[in-house]
Amino acid sequence: MMKTPMPEQAPELRRNNFGEVALGYTPEQAAAEASRCLNCKKRPCVAGCPVGVAIPEFITEIKNGDIAKAAAIIKETNALPAVCGRVCPQENQCERLCVRAVKGEPVAIGRLERYAADGGQITDNRGQITDNGKRIAVVGSGPAGLSCAGTLAGLGYDVTVFEAFHEPGGVLIYGIPEFRLPKEIVRREVGELKALGVSIITNAVVGQALTIDDLFDDGYDAVFIGSGAGLPSFMGIPGENLNGVFSANEFLTRVNLMKAYDARSDTPVKDLKKVVVVGGGNVAMDAARCALRLGAETVDIVYRRGMEEMPARREEIHHAREEGINFRVLTNPREILGDEKFNVRAVVCDAMELGEPDASGRRRPVVKEGAGFTLDADCVIMAIGSAPNALIRNSTPDLDFDRRGCVAAAEDGRTNRPMVYAGGDAVTGAATVILAMGAGRAAAIAIDDQLSKNK
Ligand code: FAD
Ligand code: SF4
């Protein structure tokens, strides 16, 4: 039996607007999909969820028609359910372990989570929480920081989040585009955390005027570092400094936070005609699909391995294809060429083939001699990965980092410094929303454990 399909904007329409692609289930569709859940005693799906959402229980409430209760069950362990219902790779997590998947398609757990979260009311549990007199500082307001903050606030801690940008949400606000994750959805869920008592201070960069040591001097009992991995990587090829070459991070931030899609904005992206996006992950898909919506005539995704090896979610690749993005796999840029004004004019590419597996287990791409070619382009977007920025590292010399510049932390977020915890992309390097949230929640529980012992 198949999943109930998700209603979507038609590709020829949506490629011209930033409105949401997936439109959400109607009550009838949600009821039909919920009825596919077998309410299994062993709950294998729950083991696949990094924050342990009580999946069969919330689906049962959808079957009963009690959306508010379904949403409340999810929120017991997931601070951002409307976000997760939209962007989590459920196919690799809860849905991968669903018994329905043995003979057919799994229950569409993510779509049902979105339905419940969108329909549920804003909960205000503050009256039920007793203040325990302890203060926690959280660095960064992405999914890791927000999940840690929400869990600790629910346990009675006075939590303050310090965020470098002018708006909280991390990649959810400045990275993932509006057509996959409307910013109003993120704002609503951040608003719920504020209603729970979490304070968020924006434009507050930890590592400059304020350091982690200052936070302890100010009387915080513990610090959680959830500062992400926002420093973009480049290939190191000739021509990367030409006008018209962006990191995906800068391009998406301009589009999302600075409204580059609006010609009246102060920092528009220049007129795009022929765009080449380098990379094969979700970030590359998002950058390519934004470029298309900004009016580019052609958008080519250039990826050095094959379609099978692409790390992006299948759904995103499918949507990008439907919208008219070209995929040039087994292709790697060798040089970017400019005109006399130092504007990009073309990308010289190598054709690749796959050799023996490398350390990651994936077959290594090798250059196919004599098969190179040139692609015309006026914009090149590099989406080949990112790493943590060095601010915290440089300002906290006694904290341990690994050789990639990530904070060295145990599974429960503990670092080498007492009462300093860390989680999310700052520890793992670029990963996923739900893994960051799981890490934030695990650290919150460990902080509570430790502070309860210290009493
Ligand atoms: P972030 O979300 O990066 O948040 C870190 C926050 O800390 C930021 O707000 C930053 O401004 C702030 N900060 C950094 N340094 C400091 C400092 N010194 N002081 C104060 N604040 C600081 N994952 C999915 O699961 N599904 C997807 O579909 C998906 N799509 C993605 C698309 C894009 C374009 C990108 C870039 C990522 C995507 N991801 C996706 C990955 C996912 O968004 C990240 O893994 C996740 O956001 C990591 O959460 P985090 O809280 O660790 O870090
Ligand atoms: Fe329902 Fe699938 Fe979980 Fe069983 S494994 S309870 S069918 S969602």
Descriptive keywords:
single chain, about 450 residues, alpha/beta, 5-stranded parallel β-sheet, about 35% helix, binds flavin-adenine dinucleotide, binds iron/sulfur cluster
Describe the structure.
This protein has 455 residues and is of the alpha/beta class. 33% of the residues lie in helices and 17% in strands. It is built from 17 helices and 16 strands. The chain has helices spanning 11-14, 27-34, 44-47, 55-63, 67-75, 81-87, 109-119, 143-154, 171-174, 183-195, 212-217, 248-256, 282-293, 314-323, 391-395, 425-428, 433-454, and strands at residues 135-139, 158-162, 199-201, 222-225, 231-232, 245-247, 274-278, 298-303, 326-329, 331-338, 344-357, 363-367, 373-376, 379-382, 386-387, 420-422. Strands 3-2-1-4-16 form a five-stranded parallel β-sheet. Strands 6-14-7-8-9 form a five-stranded parallel β-sheet. Strands 10, 11, 12 and 13 form a four-stranded antiparallel β-sheet that branches. It binds flavin-adenine dinucleotide and iron/sulfur cluster.
Strand order of the biggest β-sheet? 3-2-1-4-16
> In this structure, how is the largest beta sheet organized?
5 strands, parallel
The outline comes out as globular
**Percent of residues in β-strands:** 15-25%
Compounds present? flavin-adenine dinucleotide, iron/sulfur cluster
Q: What is the radius of gyration?
A: 23 Å
The number of E-state strands comes to 16
By DSSP (H or I, 4+ residues per run), the number of helices equals: 17
Low-pLDDT parts are: none
What is the distance, rounded to the nearest whole angstrom, between the alpha carbons of the first and last residues? Answer: 54 Å
- Helix vs. strand class: alpha/beta
Which percent range fits the helix content?
A: 25-40%
Mean pLDDT: 93
